[in-house]
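Two folds, back to back.
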Amino acid sequence: MAAITASMVAELRGKTDAPMMECKKALTEADGDMAKAEELLRVKLGTKAGKAASRVTAEGVVTCFIDGTVGALLEVNCETDFVTKNDSFLAMANTAAALIAKHNPADIAALSALPCSQDGYGPTLEDVRKGLIGKIGENMTFRRFKRFASGAKLASYLHGSRIGVVIEFEGDDTAAKDVAMHVAAMKPVALSSADVPADLVERERSVAAAKAAEAAAEAIAAGKPVQSDEIVAKRIEGGVQKYLKEVSLFNQPFVKNDKQTVEQMLKATGTTVKGFTLYVVGEGIEKRVDDFAAEVAAQVAAAKGAA
């Protein structure tokens, strides 16, 4: 029996993109014959992991893990909604969230390198991911995560598996849970108006200015008087302030009682929200849209050209 070295395993893994343990098993079965081991892996896993790496993963799940005042929120992506219901995929996502809370990895690469075994794959989370790609046949990626360990209490809410919220707070547990549900529904971008990112404020100011310019042009075309620069400036600023109230958590009408703001509800329950994190699956990822009719037409045209 040939000795299977770490360098041999690494070489085979580089050629096939297969999980480390699968490479070792194949080399053992092939008695150290690299070509035969590669063939064995092609038969068992195909080239799924390598080919899948270039495919867009805009579906997926958000999962959460909380243990006392330490927790994690994680988004794991895949290619189709079908895989989001796969038990192995969900197990990997939940395990990864727990690993983040317990080990505090610096980034996705550090998370992927953490020890993990599942479904016969391992010894790292990355090996599990690649193994499941080979098993299920879809690309899967760990997209983003946040770990919570400030000492504040934590409340979470998952809306299905596509929206996840974690609230950092002090005070009433029920109120905090209600705020988490509110955030999932209303999707604020900051706690207060002062916390709204400057680029979003400037974008809204530009929109308001463009609307004012359009209104002025319409007034001139209709032969009506144009508002003074001072009035226009006030209208623009009024639009910005309206926007800030709409997107800041504390100023939003509370979803369970729109007669009071979230801030008023929190004050009434003696609760202080120190921060929130909201993840929506696929947010910001450009999804591929296949035009089947156009694709068929292109193939027909290509066939006619070849003829």
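---
second:
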Amino acid sequence: RRAYFANISYIDDKIGDIIDVLERTLQVDNTIILFLSDHGDMLGDRGLWFKMSFFEGSARVPLMMAGPNIKPGSYTDPVSTLDVTPTLAELAGISLDDVMPWTDGISLVPGFSGTRRSEPVLMEYAAEGSNAPLVCIRDGRWKYVHCELDPEQLFDLETDPDELRNLAPDPAYARQIDAFRKQRDARWDMAAFDSAVRESQARRWIVYQSLRNGAYFPWDYQPLQKASERYMRNHMDL
């Protein structure tokens, strides 16, 4: 945890460096700054490490924006990293009609003026540490999690922010579970999802060893030490 917070302090310093350059070049009032992360880290909570789950420690990340015509404030409705593209497009004056065909997100700009989000946040995970795809629907106070191999989960984050009580088996919440199941089935065909993942894995595995013959070079930015060995990556034994 100490190392994790040290990483955050390091990032804070780097953001400060960027803002310093913008101020010295007189561009800070002509720049939209957006800060976010792709995922969190369980940091040992519940005996879990890395991401690989939809618990808040893994799935909830910062998303902060500043720039012209962005009024300071706190927007508490759930949002998605998929919303970044349409949001930046609208702020940059790009027509959302040109953007929406290739993104599932929605613009967050209406939220700047207090408009509440009407659509749920959809999440998927089908990478290392999972034996079948996981999907999640976050709608207001509710979080619903489904995997074909595991029991369903339903959490009320308003009364149970630490996600300690799974309400899915409770008959009192049958109506909420049924509504989420209908949303899930409308959005995902879980069997087809699983099949597509395995087909993709099989195709990539055919060429995996070939791609690592000769001058293989990792995609990580390379400072004075080999960055690909500093952080958890797919080639490491979990």
